[in-house]
Amino acid sequence: MNICVFLSAADLADRYTRPAREFAQLIGKGGHTLVWGGSESGLMKVVADGVQEAGGRLVGVSVDFLADKARTNADEMVIARDLAERKALLLEKADAVVIMVGGTGTLDEATEILELKKHGKHDKPIVLLNTAGFYDGLHQQFQRMEDEGFLPIPLTDLVFFAKDGASALAHLEEAAEQR
Questions:
Q1: Are 86 and 61 in contact (CB under 8 A)?
Q2: Is the pTM of this model over 0.85?
C-alpha cells in the first residue's frame, strides 16, 4: 500500500519523534511505501529514515522552492511546480493518507484532502494520528461540525482518529481489505 503522510519538516521533541519513528518502522516492516513531501529535514526525515531502515520504499514529492532540501536517496523523487501541484501528486500516488503532527502546511494539506473526500473526489481512507493529543482540539471541532450539521457525511466516514501508529496502520489495512 502507498501511504501518503502529511507532517512537519520541523525538528521536534521526542514526544513526537519517537512515535513517528515507530509508525515509520511499521510502514516499512509491513512492506508499504511512504509517499511524503520528500524533505530531508525534521520529522519528515525521521519518518523517511524509519521506513527505509525497515525495508520500505520512499516516494517523495517536493516542490520547486524546497528542492534543495529534498532527500537524495529516495526510490522516486518528483519536484512539483507549486504547492497545489504537490498536493495533487501526493494524493494521486497514495492509496491512503495519514496526517501526523505539523503546522500550517500540514493543516492546509489535511483540510484539502478532507474536503475532496467530503465531495466524493476520492474515497481513500484518511487517518489523523493524534500523537500526544496534538489533534484533540481539532477532533472536538470536527465533532461539533458533525453535531451541528456542517458535515454531509458522518465524521467516522470522513476520518479516523488514531491514538498511535499501530491503530492507524491497522485501520488502513482493514480499509484496504474492504475496498
A1: yes
A2: yes
